[in-house]
Design brief:
6-stranded mixed sheet, about 475 residues, about 25% strand, 5-stranded mixed sheet, 18 strands, 16 helices, alpha/beta
Length: about 475
Amino acid sequence: MDARTPVLVGAAAVQQHDDDPRATDGAAHLMLRAVEAAALDAGTTALLTRAQLVAVPKGTWPDRDAGHLVAEWLSMRHARTARYELGVLQQTLFARACEAIAHDGLDVAVVCGAEAKYRDLRQAITGVSIPDLDKADRDPDDVVVPADDILHPVEISRMLPVPARQYAVIESALRAADGMSVDDHRHELARLWAGFSAVAQHNPDAWNRRDVDEQTLLGAASNPMLATPYTKLHCSQWNVNQGAALILCSVGAATALGIPRDRWVFPHALVESNFMTPLVTRAEMHRNHAMHAVAERLTNNAGIAPADCELLDLYSCFPSAVRLQLREIGIDATRQLTVTGGMTFGGGPLNNYTLQSLVKMCQLLREQPEAHGLVTAVSGIVTKFAGAIWSCRPPSGASALTADVSDAARAATDLVPVDADHGGAATVAGYTVVHERGNPTAAVTVVDTPSGARSVATSTDRELAAAMARDEWIGRAVTVRDGQLVA
């Protein structure tokens, strides 16, 4: 094996469930705990003193350079730090680290992240205020930012900047494309998410290990509707205290440090699309051509189709993200689609879930050394997409390890212009109904205009909102006046 071959040798996830915020850590300390555990998982803390990179995906925490805090606490004196902003694919951290190991002389890289939003929530509820004594007021050595915007101004101004609403609009378009009735669709979502809950029950690192059945997912007092057809438990749970860390190194470094071979997990292919276009501009809201392009390149580069991998963890912020992947990658919906329980039940720390899922995937692959595992990542409103195939079996080395298929995704995606000032006749292309305390209060629609443009129209007529929450409105003729929906 080439000594510059990248290999994942340490993986660990941590969480703190205590309701007393004084008994829990902030995000940076959760990262610290995860990195320490990942080094122990690899079998040697010598990895840390040799680390040359600490890469962190930005979360809700205020520190400018959380990676520097971790590096300082663990005496990683030679490590550069990098912060990857929101809107950058979480897989990009691994792809860049692997490329630097393979081609730029990097020997050891640490990727870590965390959220302590549950701690923040408990502070607000209990009135306990915990001063943040450890702050990183310096900038990291590198800051990676997305190239474009995720949202269109008309989405922001007309009640559609909330992710749950955007994904619900995609869900309505998927339902219509599949020819499903409103009621059958609700039951399909409940069945899908109950399967995720069942996995979380057996995952000791999952945030919510309670049994959530299909009936509860259809709606209950404890699980109100938020954005038709999504209830609270269809949405990513980001009020968690969770962290994760992964340590990658070269095969040469792993050998020199005596890391046992049964710890080694190899990346076989890491492919991503960074083509960005807002939801309202996509001619086919029920399609995601980036997913198809990523799957094709993964097949070519890894020598195995993503759908044929024995283990799967599909990025699961909302059901439509999963259902798009099933459609575009060709995965059987009856399979186990997650190794963690997904972002509702396993836990969805902001901008950090892919780290959590890769930790669990690493653990399972070590138990099944002949297997392949697929881990996917989404950024924005399925704006960007990435997938990686991992295995304890060494890669053949015949194909490129990383690839960017943004150009292929761009070429395959039909776009439509946006007319924010449209007034008159229109047709509903996608929609959701906003609920407050379980009651429908407003409708948000993405509409097609006679000119072939798109717009967004809203209504706070509660009777209309209730009707749209109950019936199918895709394809209906409506009238738009000053951005308002007139049925």
